[in-house]
Specification:
2 copies of one chain form a homodimer.
Chain A lengths: L1 H7 L7 E2 L1 H7 L8 E7 L5 E7 L1 H10 L3 E4 L4 E4 L8 E9 L5 E7 L12 E6 L2 E4 L7 H4 L4
Parallel strand pairs in A: 2-7
Antiparallel strand pairs in A: 2-3, 4-5, 6-7, 8-9
Chain lengths: 146, 146
Amino acid sequence: MAETFKELERAERDSRWPRAAILDAAHFNADGLMPAIAQQHDSGEVLMMAWMNREALDETLRTGRVCYWSRSRGKLWRKGESSGQQQHLRSASLDCDGDTLLLRVDQTGPACHTGRRSCFYVALEETGARITSDPLIDPDTLYQKP
Amino acid sequence: MAETFKELERAERDSRWPRAAILDAAHFNADGLMPAIAQQHDSGEVLMMAWMNREALDETLRTGRVCYWSRSRGKLWRKGESSGQQQHLRSASLDCDGDTLLLRVDQTGPACHTGRRSCFYVALEETGARITSDPLIDPDTLYQKP
């Protein structure tokens, strides 16, 4: 598997490879998971990092709607299924080692369960950690009990 | 530890918290590591994802030069120590769960060991996987044997 990505290192720009072979060579960790970074496609804002197994990745590529693996719930997690805040895939790339994904997405509303646009809101500054954003939506509204 | 990040969920924008307490509450995995995403601060390009232990994070925050933990070499990895392609820290943020870092950096030259600017160059497209960039520098030049 590692040989495939080694081969790609010297591959020319715009050269194409069979997608199934690349996905088969991709490296999921001992739990069968791979970190996936979600970036808003137009603003470039990094929204969140979550995990995918092969099934979640296949579904995401097939449907264009981002599906992760929830480690806490132990099941597929179609982003937005309870909050309504979906992620639509614009493009997906593997890194040089084939063990991390970068997803360029179009995120509806907040990506974060706190109601904030991005999950990265705790800045580590010299004078202390600082909260860098407010929720767009009250999380109590985001996850309404039926 | 999880309680600290739970408390931050409702914290107001620009509120400040003791940095040491936040770092102590941050969640490193069973191997003592946390994923760190490096993003070029001005262009927004996501350059790479690597891992940090607490020591690497402390050093990065203290020196402003990004230091990861190399899982393959089992030691601290001061980015650019062999290639010369350093990462200078502009800002660092933890996510809502305190288990992932986003580093906004100023990257000298290529971030990728293949000589490419970004490690994410294997796009998963419908018609196949496609190589999306060429090296800026020949990797044989990047890692010259002494």
